[in-house]
């Protein structure tokens, strides 16, 4: 569009309101159309030769198209930016939803693990309580057995003491009777 001369010819037509329209699909801004309607300014070449006018016109059109694109680009950028923002919001929304679902799943799993661990601890405590009761019963049996054994031994010891004391008294009486 810029440096080299273009071989493409652009033809213009005036519609019924004397607006100039482009025939071969080139869009022109209102300012370009207004300049095209104006007679040539004093600093320019007169409209004598068709080749010079075509080249000058091509340059004007290229400049105006560049200006129009520059003017439209910010609007298009704004639209694209808004679209991108909406897309990013949607993606963040989806990401946040996935994270929420994932964290809920992790939380649910953690709660289930905690419940399982609590149930396991409860069963373990019950098992230890049963074992403790069993040990307690066993200790009571042993205690009763040893008390019984102790009572027997004390009874035997008392009998032995009684017999020994009687024999001692008897022997002492015999010794005293002999030496009197």
UniProtKB/TrEMBL annotation:
Stretches that traverse the bilayer: none
BP GO annotations: inner mitochondrial membrane organization
Membrane-topology descriptor: Lipid-anchor
Positions of region (Disordered): 28-57
Keyword Transport recorded: no
Gene Ontology CC: one annotated term: MICOS complex
Keywords: Disulfide bond, Lipoprotein, Membrane, Mitochondrion, Mitochondrion inner membrane, Myristate
Location(s), subcellular: Mitochondrion inner membrane
Source species, domain of life: Eukaryota
Record bears the keyword Ion transport: no
Main subcellular location: mitochondrion
InterPro entries: MIC19/MIC25 (IPR007964), MICOS_subunit_Mic19 (IPR052632)
Name recorded for this polypeptide: MIC19 protein
Organism: Lanius ludovicianus (Loggerhead shrike)
